Amino acid sequence: MGSSGFKSHLGALMVVLNKVGMLVFWRYLIVELHGLLEVVLDTRDTTSSDSLKNRLRSRKKKQIIVDTLDLTDEVSLPVKPSPVIIDNLILSDDEMTEPGIESSDKSSTKQSYDQSEDLVNPEITIMVHWRCLEWKKFTIRKYQTITPIFQHFAKAEGVSEDRICFEWEGKYPRITDTPDSLGIEYLAMFDGGTAAPTGSNTRTASPARSKLDANTLELKVQRKGVKRPMMVRMKKTDQMIVLMVQCAEQLNLPLDKLKFSFDGEDVNKSDTPADLELEGGECVDLFVSS
Mind telling me which PROSITE patterns this protein's record contains (predicted)? Predict the structure, then answer.
């Protein structure tokens, strides 16, 4: 083969190699570009996923903060319960029934609202201007008779109690009167002196005691073994402790020595006339323990 023939074959071979090389090159380039594209896409997906995760974390964090703030705003401070007022009696928190606890005994529940003896029968101050010369101060309970005042001046003057007389706001208190029967609420000032043996202290009782108003009823209290019953007045809205205290004062006995019943049933301090269906004139039985 001559040199010209060799060169011709070599040229043809180079052409073929060039074509093959270009094909390989383009194939290699396509593969590389495809790989690079996958890397780019994976990176983008990863970035997007991370971004999404970050956004979710951020939103969740914000939601937690918002939720925390909302909970803080809605927290209410404990409120102290208002005192309960029953017939002008204010009950403290300690006297109120604890919330959430129900008693199966209705009477024991009502007992927690009993008016105390001191509130029902408070002390009243009575000032006596004796013979327009001197003032004397006396402390008498609301349902206690003013007998001690008569006794004091009778002893001081050396006369009988029926010789002692008082005047207060146009009324002439009797020895059996009480601050309640006279309508004295806190303080009263009597003018006092001695009278002739006829006994001025036996004058007619004050009008406030002689008539019953629409809100007051009168009950008989019959003591066992005693023929004459005691007559006791109380408001229709009062608790029965008011009647009990008056009986204790009239008998000069401690309240815990007295037991009351009506129609064979025990009367509780917290009962009211309405509870017992009392309308006035009924008889309540009284038993005195030794």
Answer: UBIQUITIN_2 (PS50053)
